Amino acid sequence: MNEKDSANVFNVWNSENKILQPNKKELLLGIVDQVVSLFAVGSFYYYVFNFENLKMDHVNEGTKGVLGVASDKFTVEKVFEIMHPEDLASMNEKEALAIDFFYHKIHFDDLFSYKTVYVMRLKHTNGTYKTILHQVSVLSASDEGKIQQVLGVHTDITYLNIPINHNVSFISTKKPSYHYSKNSGNYSIIHENSASLEKINLKNVFSKREKEIVEKLAQGVKFNEIAKLLFVSPHTVNAHKKNILRKSGCKNTPELIARCYVEGLLC
What we know:
By secondary structure, this protein is α+β, with helices and mostly antiparallel strands. The protein has helices at 3-16, 29-39, 62-67, 76-82, 85-105, 208-218, 223-230, 234-248, 253-262, and strands at 44-50, 55-59, 114-123, 129-141, 147-156, 168-172, 177-181, 186-190. An eight-stranded antiparallel beta sheet has the order 2-1-5-4-3-6-7-8, sandwiched between helices. 31% of the residues are buried.
């Protein structure tokens, strides 16, 4: 672990989101567990992080299956220790960007409407790096209006073999979603009715059946199995896939699935 890079992340949290008046409401973890289980696709785990003390309030046991790390050993320090050096070096920028977005780009009333999404790599105990889809939503705010607790969901998307970048998306089902490209250095709104393939909202271009097929593809289900599950022929599934790729502007399935994750179609 690069101590300077991890210290930079802590510095962002301490300087921009220091909790002085904590909210003492108890978190109902049973409800959180049910909600995450409904929406997470693939192998995943989740945690609740508290900015009051920069500690984990809760970590579910899925860390063992995804990373080989016991849930009681999964601390923020452990995350920094097993994070790929390139990703750790850029994490302070991504976290500063997230804080800027939540405090300066949207209204406080919308704080709970968005989740922050980006991709990073974490090392399994067997020495291999797992590509992780990092999704974080605000659970509670302090009495002075700071982000206090967040729910993080980490989904293993290693099998997609997607290229790693340091872009960040802010996804909402109720409000306009935004994407920040490190290359451009700017936010771009993901419009609901945009002619640009770069900004098109995938949630609004796919039919219900197409979304079902995308979800199955993301889970690694084969064409023949998808056909059986949906009571259609493999030829029909293939035709749907071609339409899905055409509508999304993606060249192949890994690119499609990666983009669906980033834009919030898959959680």
